[in-house]
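Q: My labmate handed me this sequence with no annotations at all. I'd like to see what the chain might look like in three dimensions before we decide whether it's worth expressing. Could you predict it?
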Amino acid sequence: MKRLESGGPSRSSTTGYFKWLDRQTNLSAFNEPKAFFPALANRLPFWASGPGYRDRPLTFQWRSPLRLVGALGLPAPRSGACEIARCAILADALLGALNGQGVSYSRRKVVYANGKRYRARAHTYATVLRSVDELVQEGWLYGHRVPPNNRGWQSSFCASPELIELAEELGADPTFQVCEPIRLKDDADHLVDYPETRETLQIRRALELINVFLKKLQIELPGAVRQGRYLRVGDSHILPIPGNPLHRIFNRGSFACHGRAYGWWQNIPKTARGDLMIDGEVTAEADYTALHASILYCKQGLKFHGDAYDIGNFPRDHVKLGFNIAVNASSLQGAVCALADDAEISRSDAAAVLAAIKKHHKPISRAFFSDAGVRLMRIDSELILGALTAANDEGFGALPIHDSLIAPARCINLAAEKMVEAFETLLGRANPCQVKIKGIKVPHMGRAATSPDLLPVAHLSTIQTEITSFSPGRAEKRAPVSLRAHRHTQTRV
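A: Here is what I predict for the chain of 493 residues:
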């Protein structure tokens, strides 16, 4: 483990923070501020002079080595399950410490009664609470216990400086434990168990094949600062996951809702994604244009001409935001409020934008304010994973980000072609989709960027190719990307 930099937690600042938390969370339900403002939960300064803060959840996905547990001088564990729970708790505490975070966890028995497939059998209500309490009592963790019925708060703990120092001396880095990749959540966003069916087995097998390919990829982010296991990009801290696995999240207790795939690279700020490298090669991003609009028109058997977000004199970004809000909202009133808040415009202006969208897209207007977004995401998840599988079959790796693929620049046209083919296979050709290739650049190349086989960096940053439609193996409009892979020193993941 890497020792925290100056400005990290100290015993006095951490103890003071937990005393302050006790005063706040022991207030009556009537006076407690978080009861009235749930959005403020876990967004308070953690260290006395630290930045804005949010807890790291107890994930049960990392484990500290047993030699660290043995060096703590703890009482003998009651069972092997307790020892495993200690390893998981210590791992999350140490990972949180690298990022100036504490770890939130639940002390409610009902939480551990559900979602058992997402945790090892050792992680039960009894083993987790007993292990946390023992580590707090022995001084290896600082703990904050929230009384029952305290809305918006969870109990939390953080690593003590002594634990951080001991882990550093022993070189006791946490290891990642592969967990359930198919996750189902209920309406309250809680993980729930589900029976294994033919559908879930098909989803699982398809994802396993993709993850086998992703495991081989070397994903690099030049310019990122290594901070222990984290990569720091500006104010963002990204935790790379060994093996680069994807997991899929389904919502509303149904495998017909959501289903998008998530990987650790999706936490990289959008402004830095262009610097990603795959196996030492520069990358580009192929992105579906107005995907949900294309899907809706295609399902109606209609072809839409032009830019779905170019409506009247309204700013395009307001229309794009309004369209996406409209298909995700369950009511017009909720959509107006959401657009006004997100676009920072008046509610009357937001209502005007939404009315114009509904009028302009009358053939698909039934999808607006109907909560259709969660079902559209189920479709777009299949599109992007289908294109990713096809890319892997062609022999190159790619990284999915919702409705786009990041791939080596030399393969980006082929990746875009696979995206169009996936769309046509799943939805037909009634309304051909559009795929846009975003900026291609060679990061941190210096003089090497003037190599005869590479375009100058000044030109690379502005390249944007739009692919209007593909026939098998050919594009009506396709600008070739000619970049030779360059290998050089960078931050490795």
